[in-house]
Specification:
flat, MetI-like fold, about 280 residues, mainly alpha, disordered C terminus, 2 domains, 10 helices, about 80% helix
Length: about 280
Amino acid sequence: MSEPRLQSTHAGAPQSSAAARIGRRRRRAARSLLAPLALLAILLGAWELYADAGTASSFVLPAPHEVASSLWNNAGFIAGNLVPTAEEVVLGIALALVLGFALAVLIHFSDTLRRAVYPLAVGSQALPIAVIAPLLVFWWGFGMLPKLAVIVLICFFPVLVTTVDGLGRIERDQLKLLRTLDASRWQAFRFAELPAALPAAISGARIALAVGVIGAYIAESQTITSGAHAGLGHEINADLAVLQTPRAYAAALVLFALAIACFYALTLAERALAPWAAQPGGETP
């Protein structure tokens, strides 16, 4: 009679262990959310007090409750402009990741390309977008393509630099070991250099995501757009021009949230692509 009871006890042990792990993860998630939410509440409270004091005009700095009201009343309009901006960010970042990673690999394999491409890549970050934007519109019209070009130009460089550094930091002993096993150059890259560089490449992608959203704003501000919904960047500039400051701040708040969402989406992708690079406990800064 005691044997079935013993088996039942052992069967319930994995379930209780899994439940305990889930509980720990939920507590960690709650703690990780508590600090930024508390800081956000403090900042919003200080902002509200400053705005209510009348130190700055509401045309210059609207109060948070005015921004929230404008966001609620113009939700459909802002959401309509969010769609093209989000598409530009996602596609632009994807193209920037591909370009930055491909150039990094080519530079890693060829010293000649490193000497030729690297200085030009550095110089590209100093190009004023306002100078080249008319040319991009002349080449590719009023659609999405000129905006994607601007986002790629702004975002590919962090991926390039971090990936090149990651590929160059492979331990020499690992390469020697692979040579003793008669590994080809491609096999050494596939099994040693690429896994070692992937965390650095993802770090560069995080930086690119952080600047990608503001890159979309710059692209929409500097290129002409046709259509009813021209994007949040165009909307913010148009609202500021007619003193619709609360709605401009509401659109900026949506851009703020979009950047955070993209950043943490990449964090989830990192856990799938490079789980060995995850921080202890799986926490994200």
